[in-house]
Amino acid sequence: MSENRVQLPREVDIDKCIALGAVFTRARIDIDELPRFKESCVKVVSDVLCDVRFESDLNDMRVVIGHVDCDVSFVCQRCGNEYVEHLMTDFTLSPDWERAKACNLENKYDFIELNDAGKLDLYNLIEDSLILEIPAFPKHDEDDEECSRSGSNWSYGELAPDASVSPFAALSALKGSLAKGDDKGSDASDK
Ligand SMILES: [Zn+2]
Q: Which one of 5, 26, 49, 169 has the largest count of C-beta atoms within 10 Å of its C-beta?
């Protein structure tokens, strides 16, 4: 089946794609073309499928819009068994940083660079987007029966429900703790 799918081209000429109104629907990427992503997972168990289209927006900025998804297996950090997770990512990117800056639109998009040939490397940007979707703490869904530790008392900062505390008291306590300023460090890893 997967062999019948259109393969997403690695490099595209964004101007040409916009002029032609190019659209790719459920186009696939061979996983061996995404080595950094592949190595970050136990295994990619489905095709990597992409919807990508190209536009010129009202400010004449060139934009590439896409959605990518695939099934990936990870090792569950609770039970140690492999499980499959559906990863998906959406992106809206523009190579026109200078123009955005001139129009005060730096916050409207994320920006990408074109390669030395002036082309857009779709695989590189899709690989980056997928890597960002990899969970920092892969684990089965909370109520997944396959997780051999499900039903145990693992919890991640959940508040224990306490019937004796009124919701209003809980809310004002929460406001109090927010007012104190919450400077918990981010645990995002830069790996
Ligand atoms: Zn598990």
A: 49
